Amino acid sequence: MNRAPVQPELLIWARERAGMASADLAHRFPRIGEWEAGEVAPTLKQLQSFANAVHVPIGYLFLPKPPEEALPIPDFRTMDGAGVQRPSPDLLDVIYSCQERQGWYREYARAHRLPDLGFVGSASTDDAPDTVAATIAATLGVDVAARAACRNWEEARRQMIAQAEEAGVLVMVSGVVLSNNNRKLDPGEFRGFALADTRAPLVFINGADSKSAQMFTLAHELAHLWLGATAVSDAGAAPVPNARREEVWCNAVAAELLVPLAAIESDLTTDEDLPGLTARLTRKYKVSTLVILRRLLDAEWLSRDEFARAWAAERARLRQLAERSASDGGNFYYTTLTRVSRRFARALVESTLEGQTLYRDAYRMLGSHNAAIFERPTQ
Q: TM spans, by residue (predicted)?
């Protein structure tokens, strides 16, 4: 029996990279403890199965030592004021797939002579966030009253995504890697990222996050596009010590875009208690309660101490809520368009049906081999 010449430390690195313990894999690989101890080596077939289980290219396992893996785009995330060190294979694979889609769409846009989008890179962190938020709202047609008329967060999110795509942004929303429902994305690792490009600007939103949180992430990543800044983010309304200037600025733009200060000030009353006010404004603006609390602080309706207590209490309440049911299932057709961007899917289907793109490549970029996407219009 031929054994694979693999270093035990590579096996340990690959398992830890995937966030797994030995016990998580023991049912599939009963001798994994012996492999990692160097007492016996896996066969090549076993090594291939192991590589698939931990989502690592098998070639990595034949290296003399673990590779230094860095994100292929700037990392603006922070945890306790420090950068996040090791990206998960799920995050890496999502970024790589989005970069491939963006590259394809960039060439498509060039071949079809689509105009450059002047708003990408049109702002700087020296610009006032409220001015840039007003520009984004005007460019996309974002309107507070129209969002307030939406029945729920899902409808409001769809409306804003459609507005961004109409302006030329590829918006991709998924809670899993490609179409693999066994590889769920962790909102605790990242909430979204932006890939800035004047022909193919792209925003990815972690669909495993709550709908209300996704609204803020979308607004935050749009601000990144206006900066012309490619980056992965953990966007949130909370004041974060030692946060990067770009993230503070993008958060300010996102908050003003979704909940304009002038609008919320006109909504405030002195005789309403905080829970009632928060619930009412959350329903109107279709954002999370945390965003509303931050805007109440900005409007000086809450003091710093009141905000800190309310924020901590709300975070605790949200943590206690039962996990919502997964939303990435359901209708295959709509789910696919959401995951890869309706604008991107329309261009890819058109190119494939015209014979300009191979079906093999189209299926890979769609993350699915279901032919239904080619049998229905993507308008």
A: none
